[in-house]
Design brief:
It contains 15 helices and 2 strands. With 439 residues, it is an all-alpha fold. It has one domain: Ammonium transporter AmtB like domains (Ammonium transporter fold, Orthogonal Bundle). Strands 1-2 form a two-stranded antiparallel sheet. Strand 1 and strand 2 form a beta hairpin. It is globular and about 60 Å long.
Amino acid sequence: MTGGSGATLSETAYGLAFGLLLLTPLAIAGVALMNTGLGRSRSAAQSLLGSLLIVAVAVLVFCVFGSSFAGFGSHAGASLMIAGKAWDWVGHEPILLGGAGLQDPTTLRAPLMVLLQVLSVGLAAIIPWGSGADRWRTPAACIATVATAGVLFPLVAHWVTGAGWLAQLGANFGLGVGFLDAGSGASVQVLGGLTALCVVWIAGPRRGKFPKSGVSTAIPGHHVIFVLLGCLLALAGWLAWNAASALIFLSAPLSTVAGTALNTLLSASAAVLATFFITRARFGKPDASLCANGWLAGLVVSSAAGALVSPGAAIFIGCVAGVITPVLVEVLELGLSLDDPSGGVAVHGVVGIWGLLAVGLFGRLPAGVGRAGQVLAQTIGISALIGLVFPLTYLLFWLLDKRVAFRVDRDGERLGMDLHELGGGAYPEFVVHRDEFQR
């Protein structure tokens, strides 16, 4: 990112960015509603309540101590000297947002950055919640959120901001302008996808999903209307999210805000149309749930690239995301036996990585900055996420699972998460329990 916490921000830009941030929770609401619709009816209430609890835990944990490691204030972070260069790995700020400058009337950027980071960690935390649907216990998910909001998200967020070692790849090693990420594509989308993969691996598939003989059993989402409505809510939130991120993180001029929002919409539109035609060709008729995932994939890929590419590039990037999404969902399920009801691993993880790479391939760069160096900087950042963050995430979640089991017991899964954890279902007037587990 090119902005940094010390860059100036006009009062007009502050007012616009704050207004946009008030709309960004719609992205969280959209993803939460999609997660609920893609799960079973017997777990619908637990899914939405769990989203609220997870966001609440993420916000509190990040504000209490996670923000200290994110290190977006004025204090120096913890650095290592390697090859004569300072590699800033983690922030070192006072807890409870003591170093964020929230009470400084001369600093307009600091409170906006804090609010954006708080919302970002909430979105990152509910991505794996959808992947673990129908078997991930709410208490375990909340405890895992402590690790995400207190350690994982702050670490990645610090790396990709102005002081972090990834952002400094340009200054230290001449690799483009350093790792670029316009709208938290790394700390929210890719991190969310990686945590989703860890949850799916640790919790295992839902019973009956992969029988000992035969192919994978289809378990369709219970409410496609929720899923499609979630897409529209997510669009409104993402338009605001990407535009606000450009103002706050990139110090983008006000004239570029509309272009960022336009690129977001173009990317999502190209993606959903690509998925529509791919699924129609593959299955004879378009698949509504996969089309919804394609739409979300277009929004995800715009997180990193929306503020940095041309409209034509946004269409191409979104089209690629829409093509690979249904293929990835099928490969991960049939090829790797991953039971991911929301498609979080493919949509947020893999497509998020494509968005980060697309920044290097198509992003606008300052004069004199080489394209090859920028691609290498993006590749190093992606490699760090996969090679460093992913093993750390799996280790933390694996240790937590040993203390507080992620997966619900056999009877709880048979009854459904609503009855097991809440004592009542989301649809009490309908019969939502079938005996598929008796096979």
